[in-house]
User: Fold these one by one.
Assistant:
Number 1:
Amino acid sequence: MSGPEPVVRTVNLVKIYQTGGVPVTAVDGVDLRVDPGEFVAIMGPSGSGKSTLVHMLGGLDTRTSGEIWLDGKRVDTLSESAWAVLRRDKVGFVFQFFNLVANMTVADNVELPALLSGATPRQARERREYLLGALGLAERADASPAQLAGGEQQRVALARALANKPSLLLADEPTGNLDSRNTRDVLRLLGEVHRDGQTIIMVTHDARVASLADRVVSLLDGQIVDDGAIPRPVRRPRGGAGDVVELRS
Amino acid sequence: MSALRASRRWIRADLRARRGQALLTVLAVAGIVTALITSATLLEDGTNPWRGLFTQTDGAHVWISAQDTADAGKLAGLPGVTGVAGPYRSAPVTLVQDGKKSPVALRALPATPPKVAHPVVREGRWLDSADPDGVVVERSLARATGLRLGSPFTVTALNGARHELAVAGIAETAEQGFYPEWTPGLAWVLPETLDRVEPAAGRSESVIGLRLADPESARLVAQGAVTLLAEKIQRVSTWREVRASMELDNRLLGLLLALFGVVGLVAAALAVANAVGGRVLMQSRDFATLKSLGLTRGQITGMLVVEHGALGLLGVALGLAGGQLVTMLVLDGAGLPLSLGPTAAIAAGTAATVLVAVAVPAWRGGRTPPIPAAPAAPPRGHLSKLARLALLVRLPPALVLGARDAFTRRGPALLTTFGVAIPMTMITIGLGCWATLDGFLDQPERVGQAAALTVRPGKLPAAEAERLIKADPGVAAYYPGSEVDALEPEQTRTVLARAIGTSAQPYPFVAVEGRGYADRGEAVAGQGLLDLLDVKIGDRVRVTVGGTPLILRIVGRVVEPDQDGEVLSFGLDSLAAKDAVPPEFYALVLKPGADPDETRARLLAASGQDLEVTRVENPAERLAVIRVVIVALIAVLALIGLANLLTASALGLRDHALDLAVLKAMGLTPRQVTATLVTGTGLLVLLGVLAGTLAGASVSSGLIDLQGHTSGVGAGIGRTPPAATLAVTMLVAVGAALLVALIPAHRAARSRVPLATR
Ligand SMILES: Nc1ncnc2c1ncn2[C@@H]1O[C@H](COP(=O)(O)OP(=O)(O)O)[C@@H](O)[C@H]1O
Ligand SMILES: [Mg+2]
């Protein structure tokens, strides 16, 4: 392969769950390459292995076989702790259920990854103020997550994922739990950080959400069945709230 | 470094979010440590008051009575002497109280208390030259004779002259044992008062106390004093004799206390483990999130250990302070704080227990997989067997649903049941200790104390003593006895051989195994003796008493609190006549309802003070205060149980949020929802209370007996709390638990839960 050093590269990545005696092959020989600044959407029906794939890319789950390379470094052999340390600098996660730390204020939630990546409390605070300001949440800094609406929580989660300036942003159905208005807001934000050069891998089962990306990778039964750039320009349907169909996975 | 900052941030946020719970943990641990320190101090102080008194009075190690004071200077010059009390003039007088006479040593001390061996005033004041008729009375003498502040203190000197003095103060000292075990009693007056009461110098003696650099050299110094003063010396006593006479055989109570300590430690572990365990279960999603942000397994474990460990250790520290405070209040400023050894043991024991109790759930928290799970799914709607039963007997829907809930979620169900059952077990064991103490008092014969009084004939001939005893209306039976040393078969150690009663009229031992002795050559023994000689009931043992070999067949085992249980008891007629006649003492069993003190006074009066009558001291009496500690510990345990319940219900409710919405959508009123939740908790509580009580009842007497066995006292002292007590305890426990369960249930039933969180 030529071109710049990829942010993520996997070689014949396989994940087999061994629960209850019957092995389930969730990811089945995936070769994936994501270059810096790319915005990749991973699509596929429920159970096709999308979550398993991004969890492995972020080290939350171990691979059964194959290789994972992050920023030119082989990482699939790392221990759980080494992965944790690596995540502090390189990876940001956004989950479907927001997963804000319930006890901490919005401000603390966002500052935590910055502190972990070695920022001083002051730098962490400045980064948090900048991010919350950019996401329109500056005045909610002292609120607790439970006081926020779903869309606000997901924007905070996004701010938190960006707080350590990760080289890779992983988002697993970030809009799966939001109504259409909040979905639009979150997607707009993702678009903005992408324009600023952020590499993003986003899982979704919604074609309209995927259409925001540069490239769509389609998974089926753990295998890549389609990988291609999105033809542009995309026709966005007119209409307001409620036209994003809610599906569950 | 960076992880430290993040962890600190998390800990601070977490503590802020659950101030109440954190406080509860601290208080629970502090309560337990306070209870342990208090009971250990009381035990130490109650069984060995000498230590406290000696320190408080800056006591002297050796006391010497001599004919005159001339040689005091020489005594002070003995090697190792660092301080001298006296010499004080001391005269024998008789205290007269409406016909009752008590022997007292009147001692002259200055109005300014001396540096060494200054009595500590407990009531009233010290001697004052403005009040030359004032007497300061030693406390045990005041107690035994019923003297209070201001009471007249009428004494007759050896010349028969009467002097009216008055009690100005009551004080304690470490220079002699307690009256009446140690006679004569002690009272202090000013020198000029003593000169008035006993002008003749020849009828008084001179008393001097020596404080030593090394207490162990007391015997050497005493010997030195004897050599120095030769025939002028009248009496020498060392601190060891004083301590021994004040000491109470605390073996049985020590046993209870040890058991108690174990209960306390388990309770502390439980309080902490439950708080941390429940917390970790609640926060597993947060831990997954923190891991996805880059915290490692070890860092999460460390964070939890630091947070909860710090709370526990804070509790230990507060408890140490609390223990000091409580004992100070209980002992009224008298007595010493607990000695360093036991304090350190309690502190280290609880600290270690707390840390282990924290470490286990913390370790589990660290092992949370980093993939944040979706919010907990509602349980599949299996009807448990119990719920089906409830349905069958047509219970209201809330009860059916509650019964279903109770058993569908294993985690919270176990947490609730065990969280209630374990404190309940401990409470039952505590009640068992209480019942055992009651047993000592109600049935002293079961611990070998059938006789309430011991009479030594003293100067009287045995026949006269027997006549006096027989004539007393309070005495039901009396048993002549002698205690001799018996060389055990290998002739290397002696055991106590107690000849008491005769085979025709045996002393009423209660044999816990076998039977009492009923024939010449038969004996009963304590567990310690059986273990020492490696014999069992039915075996013969050969001992040597006063050079005569004696072969005894052991026919029974009795509970034997004395001498580590290494005691052999048999009838006087088993002894050779030269060892048996005349008997050393008589053990008096009183008629039911007869007051030992009155009987004692009667016997003393009848014999004109010639009989030596002592009360057999029941170990449970002097330590009645330990019951206060049992009550306190039970209160702490109850709090812990309720705190556990709160943790478990909080956890249950978190998992329940969605169910509740569904239930309400189905048309249940808030009241029905509350009933559902309370039923669910109530069933588990009932189960826990039942299981805990059963476990405690079956274990408590067994545990006490096990401890008894290993200490030589022998099994057979442990008691199970009475059924009525247990029933009331269970009712109260279930009632309190339901009340506590009602609070979160009520709140949850009223809150509106959005269905759309998923
Ligand atoms: N922890 C697990 N244990 C066993 N099987 C799992 C586990 N997680 C996912 N699976 C299985 O792996 C497959 C892929 O799951 P997942 O990656 O969650 O799919 P998607 O995110 O595309 O819906 C599914 O068949 C799922 O049942
Ligand atoms: Mg998924």
Number 2:
Amino acid sequence: MFFVMTPSRRLLSLRRSLVHCRGVSVENTGRKAAVDRVLSAFRSICGEDGVSLGEAIREQHGKDESVHRCRPPDVVVFPHCVEEVSALAKICHDNNLPIIPFGTGTGLEGGVGAVKGGVCFSLRNMEQILDLHPEDFDVTVEPGVTRKALNSHLRDTGLWFPVDPGADASLCGMAATSASGTNAVRYGTMRENVMNLEVVLSDGTVIHTAGKGRRPRKTSAGYNLTNLFVGSEGTLGIITKTTLRLYGIPEAMVSAVCSFPSVQAAVDSTVQILQAGIPIARIEFLDDVMIDACNKFSSLSYPVAPTLFLEFHGSERSLEEQVTMAEEITQSNEGSDFQWARDTETRNRLWKARHDAWYAAQALRPGSKAYSTDVCVPLSRLPQIIVETKKDLLESRLTGPIAGHVGDGNFHCLMVVDPDDLDEQHRVHLFAERLARRALALDGTCTGEHGVGLGKRALLCEEVGPLAIQVMQGLKDSLDPKNLMNPGKILLNGGF
Amino acid sequence: MSGRVLVGVKRVIDYAVKIRVKPDNSGVVTDGVKHSMNPFCEIAVEEAVKLKEKKLIKEVVAVSCGPQQSQETIRTALAMGADRGIHVEVSGKDYETLGPLQVSKILAALAKKEDAQLIILGKQAIDDDCNQTGQMTAALLDWPQGTFASEVSMDGAQVKVVREIDGGLETIKINTPAVLTADLRLNTPRYATLPNIMKAKKKKIANVKPADLGVDLTSRLEVLRVDEPPQRQAGMKVETVEDLVEKLRDTGMV
């Protein structure tokens, strides 16, 4: 990107790309032949309508909700059970066809793009909720079960699964990307809440990471395979069942909003609220640009200033305590306009700004595309990184309202970009890299919740270091020697 | 006034389940299928509990007619805040043919027995979509009715009901005792939480037989056949507007 294209370099790179193209097209032809060979075998496993070559279907399964372009697979299969998944995987393995698992396509890092073509395993037909044990607070679900479907199923038991990434995502997909959400500060992320997984490996072997049917609340038995696969983004195996930890539905909830004169004041309040031991359920930060966008979009009139949105869960009595203490803390940090609400309708109105943030950001520039950054740093570093980032946004002439899960030190710049302005897109790309490196320099991570996918592989190397990458590569080579499982994601391997 | 409210709660197949017709077309598959409280009944329970929380009424009694499993539905109502339950046992063939007329006879008898001030029901059940029980119950008791309620307020011995009707909203004032049926926008039902589920286990559910209430369960209706809606056929593409018009004429649509 930064070196000069001299004529000789141009010729060299042209030749290289011609060879690459020819190589790729040989690869393509070889792969297409392989796909044709296996189609009848696929159909005999999944049935006629369980295999699709249609262009629209393939395109649907080649993209998610990120800005990465669509990379359609060569064929999409729709297995109904783990036995079918295993049989299909075995065929792919024997024919060297890439395997891309697909849940709801709601990812944000291009994880489902079939960069080397291959077979997309769309798991939406496996939609059973199995083995609910309310007394033990656990349930096992298949990949077609989404978060909202599970919570609707659980509603009469008094239990819920609180991890809430926003989208109505597949729970197994959430396990694959180690998803998190607005209430991670109290209930944790997928890492803390997946107890067991059923996984189909690249050669069709089916394993249970904690043992079949096992669901003790804690264990010291052997290597933690469950958390190896959580966050593996389909590069180590296909998750076909996940056993989840459930929690009691809160007896009551209170939502509150408060404005601050500065980012520092807002974050200081967050830190103090956590240090006071208040079991806050959600604590969300919106910067002044974001609040302004929300005011315009939802016709609200919040003061245009750094704002915290808080949510408390608990019994009536404990809520009173929590809210009183939190209000005192915000006031001591020059917080103003502290409003709170107990009933569902008013709570929803208070939080409307936060709920509409994504759309409000896009509405700032109609016709634009939105891209979300996702860094996460230790709490104490949050004011510094947000202030530096806002300065960078101004200097780079970019629109990037900020919304964040400050309780976890995680925030998102919702970059709003003109899809036809290549220069602006380039500036966004550079800005995102600077932001990620800023976070790394402050002991943080380049991705708090969205995953590595396609776009952050180089940053991952910087983050964990070459030695840890070697270990990761070793694990990948051991579990997937042919590099068929979702190639091109997480690790910079396969010369990609 | 007794300050007692009867709330009818019906156990139905859960709204999220994909319904399948039995191979013999005699009905839908219910074995092993998730059941839960009819969503409009949830709204009815919520309204009754809200009235009690506002101290406008004194006791909420949840009633369900059906087999043993109906007790689970009553327990959910108890976990939402109802004080006690009445399970009217109806099983087997009687349960298969149980419909709004028999249920309204049961509710009318119970209302008299319990000296109820209000009966609150869901406007309809999501399995049969009859939308008849509330109206029939009011007629049998000769009580006023406030159906499709989207807002309810007590005004002494009267109830003000805002009803959702085709043209918009209609506000009526009716005397108690009365029958109300809940529409979607009346409220947002609360979830049953763990502590409340525990407390509900201690609340009483009385068992009653329809015969004890002098109700005859014979149905005047016989279901002949149940079919799935016709499968959607694939569409077809045509090349020109003329082709389109011709096809529309051929299939008699134009």
